[in-house]
TrEMBL record:
Top-level division of the source organism's lineage: Eukaryota
All residue ranges annotated as the Carbohydrate kinase PfkB domain in the record: 94-411
Pfam families, A to Z: PfkB (PF00294)
Name the record gives this protein: Carbohydrate kinase PfkB domain-containing protein
Organism, as annotated: Populus tomentosa (Chinese white poplar)
Taxonomic placement: Eukaryota, Viridiplantae, Streptophyta, Embryophyta, Tracheophyta
InterPro entries: PfkB_dom (IPR011611)
Length: 527
């Protein structure tokens, strides 16, 4: 799924090594620790197909009950994604590809850099299937879950396999109220024993200093993991057409061919769906990749409505060190680009349009883990875009959602909840650094510059408009709360409510049921 990367994190207590040669056992199972359960044998429910990828074999457990469709009698499953889709009408955000299961491990040290050594490391990882309770939804599931928790109606477009990992992803998405639209054509025969059809796994490796490494079979394959896909199904086209936003990121190239990604992009443009693109760390490698990858990257940068990048990624794509100037360059080169958003980490974020610059400092929080923060940030940007929220307000909520995710451990179902976001915004504790921001926008030739500030004395100063954080919070909180309640009035609301964790919302849900009596009789029992 991911290329090998290492990112410094805030140190957490290191767990003593286990008897397994490369893993650590947990003192606290939520602190990124994944003990490995022994491989089942004999009459076990596990069956172990093998991933074969340029010399690497990865054993993956399957479960007989996880079939997504009937068998054709020869061990191959016919996928019936219509059964799995909750519904594809009136979607706010649809994500394209990049669906995987994260398996998080504490390790004494991160994997070696050499390709051969990492092959061996991956083989060692696969010997003992991990306990299910330590799996987590990853990839674009992070963005979809964060968006759903803000009250947006979400769908994921992609492929998961006919095995226990695929079933796990489907269950998580359903519990979060997210639709799943498969990319297989009706009648496609999918051989569940073939590695090319298995759910993509991403091993998230954490060393004692809380540095992260990411490994998956996609790292060792010349072609995308699902290169057998060559066209968009009618269900996928319908999902794109019914969506306000189609979100793509650079990791989608690990699964889908550049040609298929461009097909989805062009169809979205044709039917009037806005396209969000976050190249991520893959942007740099795509820039020097195959001719097909370079063409697809260029097409996405030109045809997307909203681009989202870190300051380093913006510099690598433009050669410009100043993030605002880099954003303006991307805008100038884009054919449809309306917003370029630069993520500045602990500094905050910037939103650049053709006529304005908006800057918002980050919220001060105790950072536990930054995995999933960028995905959560994107979800909030989509929320602001859809609801036509003022630009600096949109940055404020995006910073808050990203920061709230950083306060937890890991991504997937651990991304920010609405309650955490509201609590953080009410605290209104931002990391102001006037000297940094003033230097960044000095001598900028633009129509208007807006700053989010904790306190405002005189408001506008020349071209600079200071907006008080408390004013922004007072405008955003009603919108967040209203949108969250509205999201409980749909016919799939019972999938959004976790009966064991969200009872505090049951009253609002019950009232929504009363308004549309008859549609929700079965679901009321969830309260």
């Amino acid at each position: 799924m991911h290329n090998y990367t290492v990112t410094l994190k805030s140190p957490l207590p290191y767990h003593a090594p286990s008897s397994h040669p490369i893993f650590s056992l947990p003192l606290n199972p939520r602190q990124f620790v994944l003990p490995l359960s022994p491989q089942k044998t004999g009459g076990s429910i596990y069956h172990n197909p093998v991933f074969i990828c340029k010399g690497t074999q990865l054993s993956v457990p399957s479960h007989g009950s996880a079939s997504l469709g009937p068998s054709n009698g020869n061990g191959a499953a016919v996928h019936d994604w219509k059964v799995r889709s909750v519904g594809i009408e009136n979607i706010d955000v649809a994500t394209l590809g990049n669906l995987c299961v994260d398996i998080v491990l504490n390790v004494p040290k991160l994997p070696p850099r050499s390709r051969e050594a990492r092959f061996a490391y991956m083989q060692e990882l696969s010997k003992s299937p991990p306990d299910k309770k330590y799996w987590e939804a990853g990839g674009n599931c992070n963005m979809a879950i964060a968006a759903a928790r803000l009250g947006l109606h979400c769908a994921t477009i992609g492929h998961v396999g006919d095995e226990i990992y695929g079933q796990f992803l489907l269950d998580v998405l359903r519990e979060e109220g997210i639709s799943m639209v498969g990319m297989s054509e009706d009648g496609d025969i999918v051989d569940s024993s073939n590695a090319s059809y298995e759910t993509l796994l991403c091993w998230v490796l954490v060393d004692p200093l809380q540095r992260h490494g990411f490994c998956s079979r996609a790292d060792f394959c010349k072609d995308p993991a699902f290169s057998w896909m060559s066209k968009l199904s009618e269900e996928v086209k319908m999902a794109i057409k019914q969506s306000k936003i189609l979100f793509c990121n650079g990791y989608g190239f690990d699964e889908l061919s550049p040609a298929l990604i461009m097909l989805a992009l062009d169809y979205a443009v044709e039917v009037g769906t806005s396209v969000f693109f976050d190249p991520g760390p893959r942007g740099k490698s795509l820039l020097t990749g195959t001719p097909e990858e370079r063409q697809a990257l260029s097409h996405l940068l030109k045809m997307s409505d909203v681009l989202l990048l870190t300051s380093d990624e913006a510099e690598s794509l433009t050669g410009i060190g100043n993030p605002i100037l880099a954003g303006q360059e991307l805008l100038k080169n884009g054919m449809r680009t309306k917003w370029v958003i630069i993520k500045m980490g602990s500094r905050g974020s910037i939103l650049v349009t053709k006529s304005s610059i908006s800057c918002a400092p980050a919220f001060k929080v105790n950072v536990i883990d930054t995995v999933g923060c960028g995905d959560s940030f994107v979800a909030a940007i989509a929320f602001g875009y859809i609801h036509n929220i003022p630009l600096v307000n949109t940055l404020a909520i995006a910073n808050a959602v990203g920061a709230a995710t950083a306060m937890g451990c890991g991504a997937g179902r651990n991304v920010a909840t609405l309650e955490k976001v509201i609590e953080l915004m009410r605290a209104s504790n931002i990391n102001e650094d006037d000297e940094f921001w003033n230097e960044l926008v000095k001598d900028m030739d633009t129509g208007e510059i807006t700053f989010l500030s904790k306190m405002v004395i005189n408001g506008r100063n020349n071209q600079v408009n200071h907006v008080a954080l408390q004013k922004v919070v007072s405008e955003l909180l009603p919108k967040l709360k209203d949108n969250s309640v509205l999201n409980f009035t749909g016919s799939s609301a019972c999938h959004v409510i976790d009966c064991h964790k969200k009872k505090v919302r049951a009253l609002a849900y019950f009232l929504a049921c009363l308004v549309t009596e008859g549609e929700f009789q079965e679901d009321v029992a969830c309260g």
